[in-house]
């Protein structure tokens, strides 16, 4: 297989789903019957039937060895559906998908693991499924456990594992044992801790010399670091292809009826501080003011405020639902004040990010990434765990 060979090719790929269960079952029976009797369906531009909608449409791209494509977009944009079609879990309704070489996918945590068996037993079962002999698995076993750092839990049933431990084991098997030509990653790395995410990103960078990677993440810093190209997905359709930074910029700037006018931050303990010069004492408080202009009335929205460290990791989240703070937006100017109290942060620099999304948590209406900066004056270092 040549280094320049196309490993993933999608041509006019589309997938539709049905919102109504009974109609979905009836459509499935009719389509299966047509397939059995050899009646060809129109695969170029099929009509939507009642209750159907397009989850993906007009997907066209090629990836070669060494390419890493980042899929960026709001929840419900069709990113996971696309990965499932690429992995063969679901069949596209239009177009074609061509995959070359060995494919590894991490789309669901713990997929393929037997929860009753231990980590050791699951490693050997996965090796057998991949066609490796026991000796070949033996040769890779120590490296898998070293990479996952699960030495103390190697003989524990995986049903006792946390989501982060599932990710450690699953990614280690895919990266060390399998050495795939195509690797599909859907947000799962974000579940692991910071050190493991860094290790995963370093391994993905190494794998790019021999693999093509498709990477889904809401963490812009990870997409910018590892991806060679990116695509912004909206309503199941690719809206913008480009460099990771250009696509991330488009994603963060996109808003529908809402626009952010200004965001200010005030340290309540030292209110005279200027913007970008805030110094917060250990256990101090911040007041964040967000002003929005809207062309439409919204009610029942969700406001989230994140404290982000210098590496881009969110270490604390404030959620309006947990504070009986209704987010209703009227036509015209709106302003919201949020007070973050008793912030016991380790020494260092931090940023404030926020997002507003609808009550169903399907789409983001507006986001503000790293809109304000402040410094913690704590004189000690340590693990920072903040509950807002």
UniProtKB/TrEMBL annotation:
Keyword Lipid biosynthesis: no
InterPro entries: AAA+_ATPase, ABC_transporter-like_ATP-bd, ABC_transpr_TagH-like, Bact_Polysacc_Export_ATP-bd, P-loop_NTPase
Keywords: ATP-binding, Nucleotide-binding, Transport
Domain ABC transporter, chain residue ranges per copy: 39-260
Keyword Repeat: no
Gene Ontology MF: a single term: ATP hydrolysis activity
Superkingdom of source: Bacteria
GO cellular component, one term: membrane
Classification via Pfam families: ABC_tran
UniProt record similarity statement: Belongs to the ABC transporter superfamily.
UniProt-recorded name of the protein: Lipopolysaccharide transport system ATP-binding protein
UniProt organism field: Aporhodopirellula rubra
Taxonomic lineage of the native organism: Bacteria, Pseudomonadati, Planctomycetota, Planctomycetia, Pirellulales
């Amino acid at each position: 297989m040549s280094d320049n060979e196309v490993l993933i090719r999608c041509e006019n790929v589309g997938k539709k789903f049905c919102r109504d269960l009974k109609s979905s079952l009836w459509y499935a029976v009719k389509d299966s019957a047509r397939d059995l009797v050899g009646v060809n369906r129109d695969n170029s531009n099929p009509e939507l039937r009642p209750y159907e909608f397009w989850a993906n449409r007009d997907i066209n791209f090629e990836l070669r060895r060494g390419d890493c494509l980042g899929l960026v977009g709001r929840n419900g944009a069709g990113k996971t559906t696309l990965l499932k079609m690429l992995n063969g879990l679901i069949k596209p309704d239009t177009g074609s998908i061509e995959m070359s070489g060995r494919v590894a996918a991490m789309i669901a945590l713990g997929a393929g693991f037997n929860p009753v068996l231990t980590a050791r037993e699951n490693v050997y079962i996965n090796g057998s499924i991949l066609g490796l002999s026991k000796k070949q698995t033996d040769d890779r076993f120590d490296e898998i456990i070293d990479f996952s750092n699960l030495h103390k839990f190697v003989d524990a049933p995986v049903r006792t594992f946390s989501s982060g431990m599932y990710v450690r084991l699953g990614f280690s098997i895919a990266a060390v044992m399998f050495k795939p030509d195509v690797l599909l990653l859907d947000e799962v790395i974000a579940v692991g801790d910071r050190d493991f995410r860094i290790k995963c990103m370093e391994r993905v960078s190494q794998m790019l010399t021999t693999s093509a990677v498709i990477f889904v993440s809401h963490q812009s810093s990870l997409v910018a670091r590892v991806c060679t190209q990116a695509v912004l997905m909206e309503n199941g359709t690719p809206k913008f292809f480009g460099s990771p930074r250009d696509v991330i910029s488009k994603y963060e700037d996109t808003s529908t009826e809402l626009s952010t006018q200004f965001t200010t931050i005030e340290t309540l303990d030292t209110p005279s501080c200027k913007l970008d010069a805030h110094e917060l004492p250990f256990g101090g408080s911040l007041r964040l003011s967000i002003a929005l202009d809207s062309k439409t009335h919204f009610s029942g929205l969700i406001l989230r405020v994140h404290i982000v460290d210098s590496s881009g990791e969110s270490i604390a989240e404030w959620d309006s639902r947990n504070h009986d703070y209704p987010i209703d937006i009227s036509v015209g100017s709106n302003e919201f004040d949020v007070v973050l109290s008793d912030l016991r942060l380790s020494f260092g620099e931090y940023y404030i990010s926020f997002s507003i999304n609808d009550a169903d948590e399907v789409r983001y209406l507006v986001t503000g990434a790293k809109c304000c900066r402040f410094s913690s004056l704590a004189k000690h270092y340590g693990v920072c765990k903040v509950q807002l």
